Amino acid sequence: MSTSVLDMSMSLDGYIADPDDYLGGEDGERLHHWSAPNGQSGQLSAPARQFAVEIIATGAVLAGRRTAELMDHWGGDHHGVPIFVPSHRPPGPAARWGYPLVTYVADGIESAMAQAKAAAGDRNVLVHGAYTAQRALAAGVLDEVQIHQIPVLLGGGHRLFDVLPSQLELEIIQVIDTPEATHIRYRVRR
After folding, report:
1. Neighbouring C-beta atoms of residue 108, cutoff 10 Å
2. 83-86 and 182-188 beta bridge pairing
3. C-alpha span between 113 and 120 (Å, rounded)
4. What is the DSSP string of 93-108?
5. Can you say whether residue 42 is alpha, beta or left, with left for phi > 0 and alpha for psi between -120 and 50 degrees?
6. Most buried by CB count within 10 Å: which residue of 3, 42, 47, 118?
C-alpha cells in the first residue's frame, strides 16, 4: 500500500524558504547543501544517497500549485512519475499542454491524494509544498513527514507549518544525524 511522505529541508527556526522563495544563503541553496556532493570527492554522503534513492523510488508526486509553478512543474518530469497538483484554478499553458505527466485536481486534497496513491501503486507518494502539506495533515491524508533539519537560522521567510487546524501528534520512526543536517522521519498518528 502507498504511503504519502512530505519530504522537506527546513531551517532550525522552521523556514523552508527565504522571503524571496530562495532556500537561503548567498547562493540561494543553503537548505539543500546537505544533499550536494561532498568537497573534492564529488560523492554524496551516505544519507544523501539514501534519500535520493527514496525519492527516485516514489511512484507519484503531490505538489502544491505554488511549489509546482516555482519549479516549472519539474519540466513536466519529476523522475518519470505522475505529478498531481490540487488547485481550484486551471493549469497554465505549459502544464496543460506541454507536460502530460502533470494533472491538476480541482476537487480537493483528498481526491488529489487518492489519485496520487492510485497512480503510485505500492510505492510512496512524495509530497511537496507547505500549504499542501498543511491541507493534507488537516484532511488526515498525509502519512509521514520527513524533515531534513539544517543547522541554520534563516530569520524569516516561508514557514513549513505556519497554519494547522489543531494539535497533531507525530511518532519518530527514524533519526539520522550528520554534521550537515539531522534527518527526522515521523509517522502521523491518527
Report:
1. 14
2. unpaired
3. 10
4. HIIIII-TTEEEE-S-
5. left
6. 47
What gap in Å lies between CA 150 and CA 7, rounded to an integer?
13
Tens digit of pLDDT at every position of the chain (190 positions) = 899 999 999 999 999 998 888 888 788 889 988 888 765 556 777 777 788 888 888 999 999 998 898 888 888 888 899 999 999 998 888 778 888 899 999 999 999 999 999 999 999 999 999 999 999 999 999 999 999 999 999 999 999 998 887 889 999 999 999 888 999 999 999 8
Q: Helix (H, G, I), strand (E, B), or coil: what is residue 163?
A: coil
Q: Residue 28 half-sphere exposure, CB side, CA atoms within 13 Å?
A: 4
Question: Cβ distance 136 to 109 under 8 Å?
Answer: yes
> Considering the entire predicted model, what is its pTM?
0.90
Q: What is the DSSP code (8-state) at residue 119? A: H
Element (H, E) at 159: strand 158-159
Look up cell 507536460; give the residue. 99
**In angstroms, what CA-CA distances link 26 with 22, 49, 92?**
10, 25, 31
